[in-house]
Amino acid sequence: MAGSETLDSGEYIKHHLTNLTFGNHPEHGWGIANSSDEAAEMGFWAIHLDTMFFSIGLGALFLYLFYKVGQSATAGVPGKAQNMVEAIVGFVQDNVRSTACERNPLVAPLALTIFIWVFLMNLMDLIPVDLVPSLAAWLGVPFLKIVPTTDPNATFGMSLMVFALIIYYSIKIKGAGGFAGELTLHPFGKWGMPANLLLEGINLLAKPVSLSLRLFGNLYAGEMIFILIALMYGGGMVLGVTGGLLQFVWAVFHILIITLQAFIFMVLTIVYLDMAHQESH
Amino acid sequence: MNINVTLFGQMLSFAVFVWFTMKYVWPPIVKAMDERKAKIAEGLAAAERGQHEQELAEKRAKETLLAAKQQAAEIKANAEKHATMIVDEARDKAKEEGGRQLTAARAEIEQEANKAREALRSKVAELAVLGAERILRKEIDAGAHRDILDSVANQI
């Protein structure tokens, strides 16, 4: 269990689900929140330092590795790193190929970024739940969530950017009128305009919401299960060994989930942008 | 679990990452891949071309060999013909020469024979005259029986 024995299970779980929040508390002023309640009281103008740190760190790692490979990429015999990067790039290309947005130079790099970034952020979930937070606690950091994708801010941040791109390309390709027509003239024709708008509006808004909540939900649930398994370590020999076994099994299964979720996020982004690029039905 | 300004921070960093990928990561990798693809396609085409050329060269070599053989046979045939011709010619010439010499020898023999005959004839005539003279010295004059003597001489 996490370093301090004073926590009971409920507090332990809550502790693990609280971000390291920096903001302006109405009573304590600027600083790092010391409890999840304090973090909530900081309101909107607070920032999750751990989410920012790990997501930007992992994104930078991804960009650094791929940039380095890109700089030394040769058309001759590729090295191991180049081989791997090319396999991933080829995989993304295959997914973008034969969609309406194939010609758009933004879509494929966007998809690559999403895939790798989300994958790396998800990958943090495989690090034992207490390892990094305990280390941080020892260094005096009260809270630490190392999986950015279990923070809805991160998943919504991505999905809202994708949503903005959907709107942007819908209007750019179809024109404002065409986009408005798509929202209001289907499926019931022009006399059912309010119903159409309601249906298509929900359809449109569901895209970013489902995109981010799917990723968030999967990772949050996965993290939660790791935390629950970790609780078993405090329950004696038999529970501890069972917990260890369960953690291993869940981690193996989780490898599939994190890759799958990264892939789904990427593919849905491509699909949504593809729909945005298509002339109306 | 709170939605707060982290959202904007994430949106911003996501945008920067995507921009960076689009600008600096994606193009060189894709370029290298496309170049390699082109290179491989080129190599395959070159290999095919090489094979084709080899086939052509083999065919050409075969043709050349065949032509050379034909030529050699032709030359051989010509030479044989020529040789036969030379031999024939030589034979003809020899025959002709032999014939000529034979003719010459015959003519000479004839001539010799004629000469001898002439000499003999005149000798016989002389002898006859001489004999007759001796016989007839007593009885006939040579001048008066000349035509008889001549006809005798001619009959020899």
Question: What is the topology?
Answer:
The complex is a heterodimer of chains A (281) and B (156).
Chain A: H1 9-16, E1 21-25, E2 29-32, H2 36-41, E3 46-48, H3 49-71, H4 80-96, H5 107-123, H6 131-138, H7 152-184, H8 193-232, H9 236-277
Antiparallel strand pairs in A: 1-2, 1-3
Helix pairs in contact in A: 1-8, 3-5, 4-5, 5-9, 7-8, 7-9, 8-9
Chain B: H1 6-136, H2 146-154
Helix pairs in contact in B: 1-2
What does this entry look like structurally?
The complex is a heterodimer of chains A (281) and B (156). Chain A is mainly α and 281 residues long. Chain A is 69% helix and 4% strand. Chain A contains nine helices and three strands; from the N terminus they run αββαβααααααα. Chain A has a three-stranded antiparallel β-sheet. The longest helix of chain A has 42 residues, at 236-277. Mean pLDDT of chain A is 88; it is low at 1-6. In chain B, α1 runs antiparallel to α2 (146-154). The radius of gyration of chain B is 61 Å and the shape is rod-shaped. Chain B starts with 5 loop residues before the first helix and ends with a helix. Chain B is mainly α and 156 residues long. Classes of the chains: A mainly alpha (281), B mainly alpha (156). At the A-B interface, α2, β3, α3, α4 and α5 of A face α1 of B.
**How many strand segments of chain B?**
0
Q: Which pair of chains forms the biggest interface, and how many residues does each contribute?
A: A-B, 56 and 33 residues
> How far do the termini of chain A sit from each other?
56 Å
- The helical percent of chain B reads over 70%
Alpha-beta content class of chain A: mainly alpha
Given as residue ranges, the uncertain stretches of chain B (5+ residues, pLDDT < 50) are none
Radius of gyration of chain A: 22 Å
By oligomeric state, this entry counts as: heterodimer
The dominant shape of chain B is: rod-shaped
Shape assignment of chain A = globular
